[in-house]
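Quick one, tokens below:
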């Protein structure tokens, strides 16, 4: 009988970190929102920090467009995203969702890295935890399309997590 591969402890931030990011209003809004995008969706820092305001669409629910399919943001992430948009209500849709301290530049990942260290986690730990969790639950092709990754990336995470959904036959491309 085979054993399921063990996910290293260092990639599993405590649930309290995610809960803290969701509810602690003393943490800067851009830190909370960007960190939750890492923790829930495993988005790469380069994609997260270069999100444009127009990639958030408020139709029936708040959606984020990263890949081919929009992601409906759950509460409290949707609430935080709306608050972020409301900081500059007249900003152009092409403006950064997470503007940096330097004009015309997005938020610097080093600023977030320093803050997350005080919470006992990192961008990488949040991303890896999310990717392992998602890869074990959702087919690789679906994740790759939604989050703009290669299918191989999520197939690898599914394999490492011991998941079987990463190789969902109905979603394989037909040659």
């Amino acid at each position: 009988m085979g054993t399921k591969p063990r996910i290293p402890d260092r990639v599993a931030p405590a649930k309290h970190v995610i809960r803290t990011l969701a509810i602690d209003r003393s943490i800067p809004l851009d830190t909370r929102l960007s960190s939750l995008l890492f923790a829930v969706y495993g988005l790469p820092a380069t994609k997260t920090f270069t999100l444009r305001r127009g990639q958030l669409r408020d139709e029936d629910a708040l959606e984020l467009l990263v890949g081919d399919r929009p992601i409906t943001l759950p509460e409290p992430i949707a609430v935080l995203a709306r608050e972020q948009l409301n900081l500059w209500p007249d900003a152009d849709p092409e403006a950064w969702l997470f503007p940096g301290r330097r004009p015309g530049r997005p938020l610097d990942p080093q600023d977030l890295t320093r803050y997350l260290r005080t919470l006992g986690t990192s961008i990488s730990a949040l991303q890896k935890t999310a990717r392992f969790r998602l890869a074990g639950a959702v087919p690789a092709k679906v994740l790759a399309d939604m989050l703009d990754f290669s299918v191989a990336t999520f197939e690898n995470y599914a394999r490492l997590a011991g998941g079987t959904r990463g190789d969902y036959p109905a979603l394989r491309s037909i040659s």
